[in-house]
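Protocol step 4 of 6: structure prediction from sequence.
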Amino acid sequence: MRGRNGRHNILSDEAIEFPMPTAGLFAVTRTYDFIIVGAGSAGCVLANRLSEDPGCHVLLLEAGPADWNPLISLPLGEALTVGGSVDWKFRTEPEPGLDGRVIDAPRGKVLGGSSSINGQIYVRGHASDFDDWEAQGATGWGYQEVLPYFRKAESWAGPMSDARGTSGPLETIGGRYRNALYEAFLQAGTSLGYRYLEDYNCGDHEGFAWSQFTQRHRVARRCSAAHAYLHPVMKRPNLTVITHAHVERLHLTGTRCKGVWYRRGHRCELVLADEVILSAGAYLSPKIMLLSGLGPATEISSHGIKPILDLPGVGKNLQDHFGGMIQYACRQSVTYNALRNPLKLAGAVWDMFVKSSGPLAVFPMNALAFLRSAPDEPRPDLGFLFFPVTSDLKGGSKKYAAFSGYGIIWGLMRPRSRGAVSLRSDDPLAPPVIRHNYLTDPHDVVVNNRGFHIARAIGESGAFDPFRQGETDPGLLTQAGQDIEAYNRRTMASHYHPAGTCKMGNDAMAVVGPDLRVHGIEGLCIVDASIMPTVTSGNTNAPSIMIGERAAALIVAEKSEDLRYRDMPLPSRSSDRESPSVDH
């Protein structure tokens, strides 16, 4: 398609080139075949796969630092890094569906992106998620088409099946720690008539199962996209990685993207490429588009930016998994709260570092379930996680509670509420305006309330009788529908899975086609969770890596086809390229 689409209004087709974005030192020194903006889950995949061709020169730009922080590699890394220096620390605007609460929206700002700070839970989603994409215009993205790329990405250490991969860069494994509470959660599921799954990543994930994680096989350490895809190829002479590089906007000449402007400290640089790929995620990819004049024209103009192409879908269609939590006090010393004891904590540290086992060897959500909120649902629309530690829901401190207990978390897997990402100003350093509009669709309110009742049924199951001291949040006095709904609005949180803001398809609100090229713009692709027409039914890291794998294959195939038809060798620009490096 080459980015041409007559449906979109080209507001300026003259040969416009932006001036230097901001004051300061600047230079134009380098040209590449590909520039990848964002070293997250998909960006690391692209950097690896596109640089496999030694004649193809690739630049990877990351706004954050290298992933040197040792806390990143720990299985409990999310609890130690979210809100810190490797997190963008975004927050939503006051959410009307949550009584005006402002919700934290963390995103990784480091090599590996959010795969370096997430809970490492590996969930591909349901097969019908991808068939739905195809039905919405994402031709070639049905389950049978994407399955080979899930397999290509992973090296699975569990029981084998035709759906799993064994030789990919991404190491996946079952959780290394099992205790009686996790067992009780799974037993509760089967006692309520749900099925137990040996492997929920084979297309149909309805039921209860042990969690799977993106962890290394030999040691209990995170396997981020950077660890899996980037570090092994860092010495390739045709790959350049620059950290602390904040991309301010795209460099456009008319409706062709020729490069990007990025700022590093006080220096601003323009780098050029045959192809620019945005992999900055569901919050930042649309922000960069809007700053560059690509998006809803009226919105862009309101910030004093000249609209180049009216793409009404940029920043719209924002989706996320979100839900609540029900908590219980525990009568036995089997929760993570027991690690407040210095001796038990020391033993757990020893087990993790020496034996790769114990409670610190896995993120504390080692059992999960995907269930239907009602019998007429075609597939699971609720996800559940068991959490053997308690949160301070009453105090709202965002810290762990003092009492020993456990929680059952649920989330809406196919929400109908839609939000948006927009600009705060024309300042590239200003955070985007994020409005998720959680629970603004009445259907989501109904499904969320059903999630509460299912979670309570699990928690009241006989399997928990030896452990359950009593329901603490909200407490058994909360029975009326309006009280439950009020509790949910007061305590619900994001599952940190934003998607959909540059959706794939061919309708009026689509931003990219099935080839991931931006409609109406040449030389520009988007490859990250923002292209999902609808968010998958589970954690988004695995699908984002798959998107990176499939996008790389599409780009390489197109490049090879172009070269065959043109009968010309790969372009060589060795004279104006720097030596490869990781610039910290």
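Step 5 (inspection) to follow. The radius of gyration is 24 Å.
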